[in-house]
Design a protein that fits this description.
284 residues, mainly alpha, two-stranded antiparallel ribbon, 2 strands, CPBP family intramembrane metalloprotease, metalloprotease, metallopeptidase activity, transmembrane helix, transmembrane
Amino acid sequence: MDTIAAVNRRPGALWRFLQFPVTRLVLAVASIALAIALTQWFGGALPPPFVHLLSAAAATAVYIANVRGIERRELVEFRLDGAGRETALGLLIGAALFSVTMAILCLCGAWTLTGVNSIGVMGYPLVSALAAGVSEEILFRGVFFRIVEESLGSWAALALSAALFGLVHAPNPGATAVSTVAIALEAGILLAAGYMCTRRLWLVMALHMAWNFTEGGIFGTSVSGTEAHGLLAIEFHGPELLTGGAFGPEASLVAVAVCMIAGATFLARAHRTNRIVRPFWRRS
């Protein structure tokens, strides 16, 4: 299969402008961000879970409109063949990676279980994780990584998208320089590498969702600085470099190590299957 979802180029100055990579990047990010903002504005009277789901649906619809209307191509990143398998694999990997992180932290004496809550508390974290997995993967992997990769190649897109992913989490509650770098290294690299392996969004959306839900909905720890109430009640002990501090275990050096190993595995597979895109000046 082609590693790049090729834009269907149209003749004329207007189409050259609209289909220029920078133009497509700006239009897609701006329109998706606007759709999410408007959904949250007009849905303010609705319960938060519904607003989250509507925002994810709006982001998906606007992304599809950009691909169909401006890039004029097949929506290969949402192709249905194999979608179930990739989604299941992403859910398994995301849940396993966070569970392994917590298991290592437990062995290090970094947390203790203080209680178990009602299963009903898992509902909101589940919806929040679903919305974040869909919206953020569309923006960062479907738009930013993919369009940058078209011109600058996989490695530049990987570095730039990972750095940006870390930076957008910098204003979050409890964020520090360490948490910003941690998010870039663990999630930014892992999710971009996962996208490179499949060239579709199913796996990375599911992985992102499962990580967030396992983190907040099951273990009840802060998700990127946002306090969560999950099935388990946990108390952390020890230095912030180990526990992640107020930002949550995502800022832990253990999470960074676990996710970077998984990211490296994805990158190795992408290399073996010839899914590394060279920059435009090195293509024949």
